[in-house]
Amino acid sequence: MSKKYRVIVQPEAERAIESAYLWVSDYSQRTARVWLEGLYKAIMSLETMPARCSLAFENNFFDEEIRQLVYDKGRSAYRILFTIADDTVNVLFVRHAAQKPLTGEEEE
Questions:
Q1: pLDDT tens string for the chain (108 positions)?
Q2: How far apart are CA 90 and CA 41, in angstroms?
Q3: Which DSSP string corresponds to 45-78?
Q4: How many Å apart are CA 70 and CA 54, to the nearest integer?
Q5: Residues 6+ apart with CB under 8 A from 85
Q6: The pTM is what?
Q7: Contact yes or no for 85/67 (Cβ under 8 A)
């Protein structure tokens, strides 16, 4: 049986999720609901084997190891950026795949 990690979604990631949800819901409430449920399902998949996810581009700019899980595909793809510390996964950011990577120099 694999180790189970505690997943914590940080406030900045929650704000990004809410913003994306509201944007999608302007076009379709149903699509937004399905998207949100799928996103949280992807996030909760990090409870098991989060290290299966690749290092994010941002890993080069921060002291902590930054990994990413890509949710959805094409124009709908979002990158879930997170760290792993002991038995905890901290979801730091959720960013649309078209957004520029974080470099540690900008104010988000």
A1: 678 999 999 999 999 999 999 999 999 999 999 999 999 999 999 999 999 999 999 898 888 999 999 999 888 899 999 999 999 999 999 998 887 776 655 544
A2: 15
A3: GGGB-GGGSPBPGGGGGSSS--EEEEES-GGG-E
A4: 9
A5: 64
A6: 0.88
A7: no
